[in-house]
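Exercise 7b. Backbone tokens:
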């Protein structure tokens, strides 16, 4: 047995000597546990050097992170415990504040400018693999820690409150939100075929959202294939299924303001022509040459529906990753989209000093059935047509406003 062990040790030693000789021949130095430049992170890293100076200037700090100093500290108090790692006997872990800073900087700038992870790794003096791990971990923690407080599942009272906001600010009664989809451009994933290829000729995943009268997300569904239509993604999302089956907990039917003689009327959501017309989902009348009553209805509906378009615009302006193709894995893109949506609610609540109970839906990340074609928006039930006709008559009679078109 001793001879066998001796022979084994001799062979291992010989292999090691051959490996060392090959390394020396190639001129490669032996790797170190932590590179010398990374050891100086606390002295020359961007977080320890530049950011501490930016905290003295609120304007520059907000332009750097897209969050104010108070918002940043508040966000850190929410997610800090979830992203904190323990120190080891070999090295100290990166602090929660630094991990959050790296993630926000990447989502804000580097995912949208084409710079690789190496750029921010060099700036913050951390490893590239470390940055690749920080981004999905932190954006997932942001969603998990904020969703219950700033985008929770709506109740009947919440839908009623949203409807009151649309009536007061946008003159559309019994409206519980505006619905639309946004294509988030990204680099084509390998071996994905045409699943993510959209009608614009690019590759994307779809963000389907419902927003309220104050530009806040209430329901989001992220991850739909770019090839699918907005109506198809709605039909295969948890929100769309709840809307179709009547389990969304919308308020009970009630008369339109000043129109008790028209009888009870359902609460609705407003959308464009890409979505099907349903009892609780209103779309515009198709065509160009329309009678005055239909043009008035399309105008009033478009005025309320533009809220979701404006919300997408605010999102794109706040987080620059939406302006160019994102070159990361689709799952990471989904997590980044979800995190930015809940962060927008978080920021708007902190700016307005409102109650954080925004209460929107969190049914995100569901993947629709692949291969969906265009869903016809003109296929609708008689009940849906009747509901739209009642709205049309109301907007041209007791619900008319002075500034709407009359011809």
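Sequence design result:
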């Amino acid at each position: 047995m001793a001879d066998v062990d001796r022979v084994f040790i001799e062979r291992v030693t010989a292999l090691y000597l051959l490996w060392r000789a090959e390394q020396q021949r190639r001129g490669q130095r032996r790797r170190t546990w932590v590179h010398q430049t990374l050891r100086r992170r606390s002295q020359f890293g961007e977080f320890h050097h530049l950011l501490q100076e930016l905290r003295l200037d609120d304007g520059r700090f907000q332009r750097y992170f897209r969050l104010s100093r108070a918002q940043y500290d508040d966000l850190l108090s929410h997610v800090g415990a979830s992203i904190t790692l323990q120190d080891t006997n070999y090295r100290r872990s990166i602090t929660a504040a630094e991990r959050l800073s790296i993630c926000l900087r990447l989502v804000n700038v580097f995912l949208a400018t084409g710079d690789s992870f190496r750029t921010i790794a060099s700036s913050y003096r951390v490893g590239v693999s470390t940055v690749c791990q920080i981004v999905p971990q932190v954006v997932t923690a942001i969603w998990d820690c904020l969703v219950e407080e700033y985008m929770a599942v709506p109740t009947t009272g919440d839908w009623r409150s949203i409807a009151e906001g649309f009536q007061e600010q946008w003159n559309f009664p019994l409206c519980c939100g505006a619905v639309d989809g946004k294509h988030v451009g990204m680099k084509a994933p390998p071996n994905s075929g045409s699943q993510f290829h959209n009608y614009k000729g690019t590759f994307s995943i779809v963000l389907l959202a419902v927003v309220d009268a104050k530009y806040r997300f209430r329901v989001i569904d992220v991850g739909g294939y770019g090839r699918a239509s907005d109506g198809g993604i709605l039909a295969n999302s948890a929100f769309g299924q709840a809307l179709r089956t009547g389990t969304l907990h919308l308020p009970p039917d009630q008369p339109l303001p000043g129109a008790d003689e028209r009888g009870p009327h359902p609460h609705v959501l407003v959308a464009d022509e890409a979505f099907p017309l349903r009892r609780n989902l209103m779309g515009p009348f198709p065509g160009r040459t329309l009678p005055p009553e239909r043009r008035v209805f399309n105008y009033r509906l478009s005025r309320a529906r533009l809220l979701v378009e404006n919300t997408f615009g605010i999102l794109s302006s706040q987080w620059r990753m939406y302006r160019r193709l994102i070159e990361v894995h689709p799952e990471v893109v989904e997590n980044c989209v979800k995190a930015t949506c809940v962060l927008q609610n978080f920021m708007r609540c902190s700016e307005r000093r409102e109650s954080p109970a925004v209460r929107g839906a969190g049914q995100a990340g569901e993947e629709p059935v692949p291969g969906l074609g265009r869903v016809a928006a003109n296929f609708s039930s008689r009940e849906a047509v009747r509901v739209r006709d009642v709205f049309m008559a109301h907007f041209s009679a007791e619900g008319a406003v002075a500034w709407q078109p009359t011809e």
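Instructor comment: The two ends are 103 Å apart (CA to CA). The chain is about 50% helix and 10% strand.
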